[in-house]
Structure formats: C-alpha cells, structure tokens
Design brief:
five-stranded antiparallel beta sheet, three-stranded antiparallel beta sheet, alpha+beta
Length: 172
C-alpha cells in the first residue's frame, strides 16, 4: 500500500481526509457548494462519517485519494480536493472550496498540487468533469492546459438536479 503524504503548495497543505474533518465537511458541504456537482447535501453528520470512511477505504485500496485542503498559515479547513479512479487510464480530479474562500485561486492551487502528485505516481492524463455553467471551476483545467474531450451532456443527479457536464483532459 502506498502511504499517502501531505501535499504542500505555496499557500496550502493538502492532508489525507480523516475523521477529524467530518464536522467541517458537514458544516460546509451545502446547497451552494453542490449547485454544479453530482453529490447531494447530506442530511446528518452520520452520512458524512460513512462518506469519509469510504474515502479512507479508497485510499487504503489505492483507488481514490481525497484530501482536506487546509491553509498553510492557520491550518484552517477550506475544502476538499480529490483524485478518483486511480486504476483507470485517466483518473478524475474533483474539488470544492468553502464559499467564504471562493475567488482566491485556492481551488486552482489545490488541483495543481494533486496534478503534481499524480505525475509522481506515473499518471499520464487526468480528467476534470465540470458543469459548463460553473465558469470559475471550468477555468481550472484550462489553466493546466486541459482540452475539452466530451462536449456538453445533461447528467441527472441522484436528487433530480440537471447538470450540464463537460469533461476536460489534462496531459501531465
């Protein structure tokens, strides 16, 4: 088993997600955050516990690496960044940042840290699914040279929302 390490960037430390992050995830993974994402808001903290347990199992199986994004200056939790489906030819990136920290390019910085880590693991390309209406998130794969590989398609979420998904590929 690979030991998942912390990833350090200019302003952030990405820490493998664990039970210590459950409360922060529950408090910040809200309706505003999921507007353009497939997961839905959970109703109680026990659901977050199960989700985090799944993240830990994914890490132990080397299939999914999920990190808590923390500020280097204070250690404050500000979101989640992930690398999913590591057994696939093109693993998937994912991210969400607390609303109060939007606009600071922390999402881009966190994704950059995960891209560098994926490259160190021998990954050659990554995919970044994004709702085409989420302009801020769409800028992230473009910043890293991502190319649109799957044009807009409607995706229905488990709670009945309709996403307008595009998929970008980032070669590393």
């Amino acid at each position: 088993m690979n030991t998942l390490i912390n990833i350090e960037t200019s302003n952030l430390i990405l820490v493998p997600v664990s039970e210590v992050h459950i409360k922060e995830i529950f408090e910040n993974f809200n309706e505003q955050i999921v507007t353009y994402m497939e997961p839905q808001v959970v109703k109680n903290i026990d659901e977050i516990y199960k989700i985090v347990k799944g993240f830990i199992e994914g890490r132990e199986n080397n299939t999914d690496y999920v990190y808590a994004i923390t500020l280097k200056s204070s250690g404050e939790f500000i979101g989640i960044v992930s690398l999913h489906n590591l057994k696939n030819e093109s693993p998937e990136l994912g991210i969400w940042i607390k609303i109060s920290y939007h606009g600071n390019h922390y999402g881009r910085e966190a994704i950059g840290g995960v891209i560098d880590y994926a490259q160190s693991l021998g990954v050659k390309k990554l995919c970044y699914p994004v709702d085409r209406r989420n302009i801020s998130s769409k800028k992230i794969p473009l910043f890293y040279g991502g190319k649109l590989v799957t044009e807009y398609k409607k995706v229905e979420t488990s709670d009945g929302r309709i996403l307008e998904e595009e998929i970008y590929e980032i070669l590393i």
